[in-house]
Amino acid sequence: MNVLFLCTHNSARSILAEALLNHIGAGRFQAYSAGSSPRDNQRPNPLGLQVLQQAGIPTEGLRSKSWDEFAKPDAPHMDLIITVCDNAAGEVCPIWPGHPATAHWGYADPSAGDAPDEVKLKAFAQTLIAIQQRLQLLVNLPPEQLQAQALQTTARALAQA
Cβ(35)–Cβ(10) under 8 Å? Predict the structure, then answer.
């Protein structure tokens, strides 16, 4: 099952979700992430990468990218698209091939504000834990709840978890 996590800049929350689902997905899931408007030369937030590494989650190959990469004809087919920030949830998304299930799992931006890095590092760790709670529920779902007909309802119900 291919899952795409969307955020505005694709530098924090969506990167955390991509890395985490690829780590815990046990080969059943392939996660990707993208942003609606990543900045020029955007890169994953170093504090996010640090939190992932401290949790033993691989960070190789993580990069910030535009959601346009996933709207192309040769892009991987997505089964599920999850917005993880409120800005991306309110934007007009591309038309995704195959009409995948969609859900919004909102998380506060751990990189926002002018707090010192040690405070932001704690925010990244808390965000990773919150994302992990929902993703654990997703990966532990029985196969029938991951079928195309049920996936939309299932993914949106997890937003309440």
Answer: yes
